[in-house]
Amino acid sequence: MLIRPPNDILSSEITPHEVYRERRRFMQGMGVLAAGAALGVAADVEAGVRLAGVRGSAYTLNEAKTPYKSVTTYNNFYEFGTGKSDPAENAGGLNTRPWTVAVEGEVNKPGVYDMDMLLKLAPLEERVYRMRCVEGWSMVIPWVGFPLHELIRRANPTGNARYVEFVTLHDPGQMPGQRSRVLDWPYVEGLRMDEAMNPLTLLAVGLYGEVLPNQNGAPIRLVVPWKYGFKSAKSIVRIRFVEKQPLTAWMKATPSEYGFYSNVNPQVDHPRWSQARERRIGEFFKRDTLMFNGYGAQVAQMYRGMDLKRYF
Amino acid sequence: MRRVFHNPRFWVFAVCLLPLTRLIVLGFSGGLGANPIEFITRSLGTWTLVGLMVTLSVTPLRRLTGHAELIRYRRMLGLFAFFYACLHFVTYIWLDQFFDPAAIVKDIVKRPFITVGFAAFVLLVPLALTSTHAMMRRLGRRWQQLHRLVYAIAILGVIHYLWLVKKDLTDPLVYAVVLTLLLVLRLPWVVHALQAVRSSRRVSPQS
Questions:
Q1: Which of A128, A165, A305, B181 allows an S-S link to A240, with CB 3.0 to 4.6 Å?
Q2: Which letter does DSSP use for residue A263 in this model?
Q3: Domain hosting residue A80, numbered range
């Protein structure tokens, strides 16, 4: 006869995951506060610290969020190395304060914004977006940020501003991946003006209600959920309004494979692999990739009449 | 039992099983990361390539060192390369595509890196099937001709890796360089030159 040992831990006694995380976060917060006080730096900028005053938003999804651990350990951020775990391992040396973003080019009100100004520019809101990587995997991520059009409105673009260019920090000292010439640094991305003004386009400063971890593009990054992930420039230092279509880092690297638009499109394959399906991180079966990553209702009209095979 | 531990073949066998053991241990300890299927597929592919390179280094090593007995491990090494190629292929068919024949056929035809990888795998099959002593005897000289396919297979394997990578070509290029070296060491004039160096070294102390 099989005699089972008594189960000495009741399942009700095991700390629920969320409570555990809250506790850990609280203790981390305390630790950061103490360290911050000792070093004389602002304590509210470290990854993992809760952002205050974050509103909910209409942008939620009926899909399971990708666990925090996956979102923060499986990243493409070549400034810190080309391996998926490199950013989490190497981004610790990135100094996100002080940090300024220059807003320039074809605008009536150019300016240099520091992070305090950016955090107060507009109410912070949480938006749960799908994120589809050009490599064929996807996540569901709760970002915290504000719509890019809030910043654009304040910059007051001139009539010549037809595109917006985003430039990532270029500092091989802080970004060891930039010591190798995988891409022509700095990382440059761009959007057409109407794409930049689209209510979906977000400037994110947080993740899961907390300050954005460095490996996810701290302190401020773009999130364009209907385009492949690489369009969402990270650790932005310059936003430039221009007349001509910007030459992005990936277009420069491989023009035949990466176009300016890079909209998620299951019908237009990457020259070397299919884009019809994707693996949602954490799921076993692949799922069908949705046109415009499922945001067609909000963005399809911008591309009406365009041949998306040509403008990939 | 002690005789088993004294047999070098046992140790070669055990070492060849380490990559698989590592995957199993990582799998049970949750160490495969956020995208376990990608991790497993990549790892098995890498070890297939390593297996091919190690197998291809047996002959040059034998010529360089004069240790003729190294040839005794070549079959096992080659079969391990095939073993990891099979696991790599099964991971793709089962975990990545989940036995969706339409998707697999489309993938093999449409995605060039899958096409070359699949070709390399198909070409490995006859080599594995004819690896026995009996087949060697039966095929005679044609056995060696057939098994020269391994050069093509290794080249296809490296191309498979090169075409898969998004941008950073460092890792696949390392394999390309190693393979080039292994192939250059087989060129007739290089073989002659090496033989000349070896025989002059052996002769010189007396002269």
A1: A165
A2: B
A3: 6-303
CB A259 within 8 A of CB A249: no
Residue A1 lies in a domain: no
User: Which of A66, A141, A251, A286 should we substitute to test contact with B (largest number of B Cβ atoms within 10 Å)?
Assistant: A286
Tokens of residue B5, six digits: 């531990």
The A residues from 62 to 91 touching B (CB cutoff 8 Å) are: 69-70, 73-74, 78, 82, 84-85
Judge whether A309 lies within some domain. Answer: no
Q: What is the four-CA torsion angle of A254, A257, A262, A268, rounded to 10 degrees?
A: 180
> What is the domain-level CATH number for residue A140?
3.90.420.10
In angstroms, the CA A154 to CA A118 distance is: 11
Does the CB of A266 have a partner CB in chain B at under 8 Å? no
Whether residue A207 lies inside any domain: the answer is: yes
Contacts of B47 (CB under 8 A, 6+ apart): B19, B84
Residue A163: helix, strand or coil by DSSP?
strand
**Smallest CA–CA distance from A280 into chain B, residue:** B35
Residue among A252, A273, A285, A289 with most chain B CBs within 10 A, to mutate: A273
* Residue A312 within a domain: no
Whether residue A273 and residue B113 make contact (CB cut-off 8 A), yes or no, is yes
Residues of chain B found within 8 Å of residue A181, distances taken between Cβ atoms: none
CB contact under 8 A, B33 and A82: no
CA distance A282 to chain B (A): 7
Q: What is the pLDDT along chain A (312 residues), one digit of tens a residue?
A: 455 544 445 444 444 445 545 555 555 545 444 444 444 444 456 778 999 999 999 999 999 999 999 999 999 999 999 999 999 999 999 999 999 999 999 999 999 999 999 999 999 999 999 999 999 999 999 999 999 999 999 999 999 999 999 999 999 999 999 999 899 999 999 999 999 999 999 999 999 999 999 999 999 999 999 999 999 999 999 999 999 999 999 999 999 999 999 999 999 999 888 899 999 999 988 899 999 999 999 999 999 999 999 999
- CA B38 to chain A, closest CA, distance in angstroms equals 10
Contact between A269 and B110 using a beta-carbon 8 Å cutoff: yes
Q: What is chain A's alpha carbon radius of gyration, rounded to the nearest angstrom?
A: 21
Provide the domain count of chain A.
Answer: 1
